[in-house]
Amino acid sequence: LMTRGHASPAVADSNVYLSEAILDICRGLAVFFLILFLCMHVLNSRCVYGNVLCEEPSMNTFKLCAQPPNTILVLLVLGLSFATRFYKLAEPPHICWDETHFGKMGSYYINRTFFFDVHPPLGKILIGLAGYMTGYDGTFPFVKPGDKYGHHNYWGMRGFCAALGSSLPVFAYFIVLELSHSNSAALIAAALLIFDTGSITISQYILLDPILMFFIMGAVLSMVKFNQQKPFCASWWLWLLLTGVNLSGAIGVKFVGLFVILLVGLNTAGDLWALLGDLQLSLVDVAKHLLARVTGLILLPLLLYVTVFAVHFAVLNKSGPGDGFFSSAFQSRLIGNNLHNASMPKYLAYGSTITVKNLRIAGGYLHSHWHLYPEGVGAKQQQVTAYLHKDYNNLTTRNLHSHLQEAPMTRKHFQVTGYGINGSGDSNDLWRLEVCGGRRGDPVKVLRSKVRLLHVATGCVLYSSGKTLPKGWEQVEVTCSPYLKETPNSQWNIEDHINPKLPNISLSVLKPHFLEILLESHIVMIRGNSGLKPKDSEINSRPWHWPINYQGLRFSGVNETEYRVYLLGNPVTWWLNLACLGLYAVMVAVASIHCWVLMRGGGQLVLGWLLHYAPFYTMGRILYYHHYFPAMLFSSMLTGLTLDTLLHSADLFLSPPRADWLLRLGQVALLFSVLYSFYIFHPLSYGMRGPLAHEPGSAMAGLKWMDSWEF
Amino acid sequence: MLGLSSLKFPPVVKTEINLVLVLVTVLGFWTRLRNLSYPRAVVFDEVYYGQFVSLYMKRVFFVDESGPPLGHMILAFGAYLGGFDGNFPWNRIGAEYPSSMSVWGLRLLPAVCGALCVPLAYLLQLELGSSHYAALGASLLILMENSLIVQSRFMLLESVLIFFQLLSFFSYWRFYNASNSCSRYLWLIVAASSCAGAVGVKYVGVFTYLLLLGIASVHTWQLIGQRAVSHVMFVECGCRVVCLVVLPVLLYVFCFYVHLTVLRHSGPHDQLMSSAFQASLEGGLSRITRGQPLEVAYGSQVTLRSSASQTIPCWLHSHKANYPIRYEDGRGSSHQQQVTCYPFKDVNNWWIIKDPGRQELVVNTPPRPVRHGDVIQLLHGMTSRFLNSHDVAAPMSPHAQEVSGYIDFNVSMVMQNLWRVDISNREAESEVWKTIVSDVRLVHVNTSAALKLSGGTLPEWGFGQLEVVADRVSRAHHSSLVWNVEEHRYGTSHEQKEREVELHSPTHIDVHPNISFLSKFIELQRKMLTVKQEESEHKYSSCPLEWISMTTNIVYWLHHSTNAQIHLIGNLVSWGMANLSLAAYQLLALWYLLRRRRAIRDITEASWCQFQRVGVVCVGGWLVNFLPFFLMENTLFLYHYLPAYTFLLQLLPAVLEHAHTHLLSGKSQHRAGCVSAFAGLCSVYLCYKSFSPLTYGSPELSANQLQALRWQPSWDILYRRP
């Protein structure tokens, strides 16, 4: 009782402080979006030429006059989405799920320490920036999920993500409005997203997904807007450039952004194809169109993307946990790394003392120690391994040696040992040094030269397999591989080099330039991504699980006593989305070669859904439920468009007053079911305590509609 | 449509024989079948396929995850015709065949398929609308392609696959081009069967099948658009669907049916399959399980096999060793007896099912069966410890509960040894637990966690056995939670000593589990698709991009004492020309498309159609047989490219002919075109001739000659130092 009494004022204090700060952010963001919205409104009223549609009644069975965005509706959508995303934003006050990664990476930017991640840097830069602006000092260690934040200002980063997440329903509203020219369709799409528990949860934490989705939806919106403008007028250019900016943002956050680039690319290709077929346009005009798009959609995003990396490398200039993933040359850029500002002889000479590093990702240093290989593993000679850490006490004066005995782990390779002493040994100690991409007789440059060590007697090449030895201290196996393919596993570089007879040079002249480190970091990221293989024993999320909402993700808490947040889409919304995908196919097949909205608008959304979903089936990397969220946005927008078209087509078989009546009834029923399902499932996002759903007395009792849900 | 009036007397048969076609066919057979039994040694992947052929001969069941069984069956059929008895060790490449073995028989069928590809190329080219000259060119290119010859002359599957692919496209276009008669459906049936054949030989065949389905559906769509709705149209569409969709599926399943009927003995891969499947094979498990009681009762002695989808099977196990008091990472354990999953049969795998309410460990008469939902205790047969779980973190998976054999250390750790039987494949709510067939989850009553194979391996203190934990029943039907009773008998001995003797004695009692063909088929197919091939590096493996330039070759065989050797090396001249034709086709297509979009028609509509048709078949065929390899993770070799390359070779003559008729004008240009085509053909022949020693393995070349053949520095050609 005493402790509780002590704690409460402090908690209340921080709560007050938090809510004030959040209110501040909300106000700021609201103003920002209001301005954005007004700008769009103004631009819309100028050079719009979507109204042409009304003059072509043959094209569409339904009345399709462009409806202007309804200001009240937009404000409603904006308000509701901010309210749902910011409600209980600071709860729970501990690290949830992947916050441990992305929060940590945000801190790295604030501390300027170098790290490695498989995603491009933009998302984490923005998180770091948001934290910095809101007074987070980068000192929280983000060790593991469940750690309390204490006095650290984590809400700024969460608020930033939530603000971006809140704009998704607004974007969805505008996109569907452009594609369908129907306020009700736009409203359905926005409502589905606002009241989807999954979208709320994923927007409330320090994650890359809300940022990614913001850029994806931004790109789609600008593309759709762009298609409506009169060519080469100011707003046309604006939307074109905005599309480019958003595209670079999307790919700058995650490589999944490639899918939206594909979507925009396909749409642009179709556009250009139509322009080419328009015989009224001269070839010069077509070329102008082409050049404008190349500039806006290829060159500009490329430039911005490279800029993001430039910022990334400029900010992170201190040595940190990511050093080991990169080559020695790369590491010499980082303050605090022992290669920074080091000086050593430039070219290798006989009699030098060197350390040799493998070029594999996180490749180790060639290492040997006073231990023999155990009985039964080749010859009982001194072990040679790769060791991930630098260790200067490893001059055991043995010769690097190999022979026709099988290696400890990789049975097809030969064993590598330490043999002889002080330079005396046998012919199996001879190795030929080969510089990759060089000729015989080229000198070996420290850091920069990639070398291979070929064993003279057996013709095999020194190789680091990456397999950890059973009884080692993070020792990785080193073998001699008979397969002479050039892989990073068989390439090494010289890192430290001591030779008193040679003049030392400063390593700064060997520093790689920007394009080289850009290339290297991409190679490392791609290898890192493909290295994320699912383990056989683990239960994986499969792509077919996602649209049926088969299984969510635990964000926080497992037990009855803990505060639990579970990422799971609102089942009503998600199953409605799934049904509408089928309904859309049926409607297209049955009726609507003539229906412009379904064919063109719906077609673009279906394409977007497919592009953001289908590629996951071919991915070998480990997959998670939240990978479906970008596709789910498209699916929800399609649902809005399809259901609205369906409800409006009631007048095909009913007389006017009844058709209208049916339309209203349908809309009300839809709204009610979405709201009610949100009401009963909202604890998924806003936190649950107490017994789990399958136990009596739980707040969620009876809501475990699928056995596979874990709340 | 034969009316009576068309019958004439006497019946007269008139035939036309295309002598060119006959000639290329004869040449095809000559190049593929000549001196077929040389070398009399195991060549390259014969060592792999040979073991399956042997197993077929002995009718022993096996699982080969690399492809469906039709290809193996065709090879085995050839071996059967040659009188092979299956007795050959297949242990290394280069091993000599005994003189009693008919090597000719082993290699005959792939060689015949390879030879038939030559006339098929001719016919396909004709159906695509090219002239006889282009058709002749296409067949000659196939004829003189060293890599195709090498791949056909040994006991390998690519030539069979290519044969089926070419046959399916040829017969489909024959069907499409034929006049509207019923007999043309015969061609459609041939097309569908050869599609099934292609898929049955290798999974990659699926993509060719999909391409053909795509083409056929476009044609059917046009058919629907062309005519007014009528019964005839519905019948035609129905026929097409039945032929192209239903028939291949049936044939594919049928080849599994033959496979499973032929292979009825148990063999080396039994343990990959479920107990029910194994019980259906003669010998092996069925010898042990024949005569087991079906219904598990209180007092039953059972072994519990995990159904987890992993390659090694394992059984719930315990032994006289405790969990270490502290693990390496500092966490503590209960120090009770270890419970693991053990991949070998062992007397310590036996457990006794006990009714918590009673004391006795024998089966009553009549036996009281255990039903779904019953609560039981499991007693380890040899050590008499109860299967127990509690809120202690498991050794390797700390998020899950430890499972132990309960030992009372008097440290206020209560016994929690009640388990509820949850039969997941039950049909009724009070279903009886059945040997082998029931999939059971054992749910811990106190914590409602289920017994699970975690997938982790215990370190030395656990003898490297697999970790068993109790985990929350969240993922409804995951296989690592499921167990089934494999060996089973009714316990009869009351005393522990007697019981140990009883456990050591082999089981022998009575039932025969029936498993239908369909469930066997589904299980086998799933197994074949999910079992992961070990990723192994190989000296001659290559990546798809290297195939286009043929940077790696493969040494198939080297004579044990001389320089005679066989390589998989393609005809570099036609390889290069085919690549050029691909580039030319794409440029032309782009040019025509852009020009047509601006309403400029360079060629007539008919030749544009033909141009498209060639592209869809040749470029499409190349793409669908090439691109999928970029997504595959297993070890790839140059021979994987051969099906794609065959399609690409078909493109070359078609593009040349197109250029000749549409792009060249004037007599002199035409003449120059003809001359250069002829010169190209001659150089293809010269290349074929110079590499034929490496293709046929004879005559032996000197080291200098071999060095001279190393046209690309990356090729690995072996020679002995004189």
Automatic annotation (TrEMBL), chain A:
Signal peptide: none annotated. One of its GO terms (molecular function) is dolichyl-phosphate-mannose-protein mannosyltransferase activity. Gene3D superfamilies: 2.80.10.50. The keyword Transferase applies. Its EC number is 2.4.1.109. Its main location: endoplasmic reticulum. This is Protein O-mannosyl-transferase 2. It comes from Gadus morhua (Atlantic cod).
UniProtKB/TrEMBL annotation, chain B:
CDD domains: beta-trefoil_MIR_POMT1 (cd23281). It catalyses: a di-trans,poly-cis-dolichyl beta-D-mannosyl phosphate + L-seryl-[protein] = 3-O-(alpha-D-mannosyl)-L-seryl-[protein] + a di-trans,poly-cis-dolichyl phosphate + H(+); a di-trans,poly-cis-dolichyl beta-D-mannosyl phosphate + L-threonyl-[protein] = 3-O-(alpha-D-mannosyl)-L-threonyl-[protein] + a di-trans,poly-cis-dolichyl phosphate + H(+). Its EC number is 2.4.1.109. The keyword Lyase does not apply. GO terms for molecular function: dolichyl-phosphate-mannose-protein mannosyltransferase activity. Pathway: Protein modification; protein glycosylation. SMART domains: MIR. Residues 293-356, 367-424, 429-488 form the MIR domain. PROSITE patterns: MIR. It comes from the Eukaryota. It is found in: Endoplasmic reticulum membrane. It is an enzyme of class 2 (transferase). It is a multi-pass membrane protein. Its main location: endoplasmic reticulum. Keywords: Endoplasmic reticulum, Glycosyltransferase, Membrane, Repeat, Transferase, Transmembrane, Transmembrane helix. Belongs to the glycosyltransferase 39 family. This is dolichyl-phosphate-mannose--protein mannosyltransferase. The lineage of its organism: Eukaryota, Metazoa, Chordata, Craniata, Vertebrata.
